[in-house]
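Quick one: SRPBCC family protein from Acinetobacter tandoii DSM 14970 = CIP 107469, structure tokens please.
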Amino acid sequence: MNSIQVKKKFEAPIQQVFDLLAKHATYNVAFAPIQVERIIDSNDSQRPDGLGSVRRMGIGPVKPLREKITLMQENQRIEYKIIQNPLIKHHLGIIEFEALTPDSTLVTYTIELQARVPFVNKLILAQLKSAIKLGFSKLAKSV
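--- reply ---
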């Protein structure tokens, strides 16, 4: 399985960082011009972007990617997978949170990917890694 991993230290408490990255709208800032929109709410009215929620991603009216939150453990881990995509066989995103001190948090973002056309795996992952590094740098400045 092909995968990438990005680690970023945030100078903020774990709860604040978790709450930031648990919101779909956050990714509009992190990955602009890509737009993220929640299309299915989770069953948790306190956290509509939580477990079971689905977001679509793209630019303007064209948002072909769908991601579903498959695991959400408060202040520990978020997992999502791409659904209904004919080009991707397997895509799992894992975001892990670790309190380094009361006011700093390490976030580890891992993506596993298997495209239906094998030779594009490394290209897609390289682009994702670059986008995540840039996006996390933007977000780290906002907390």
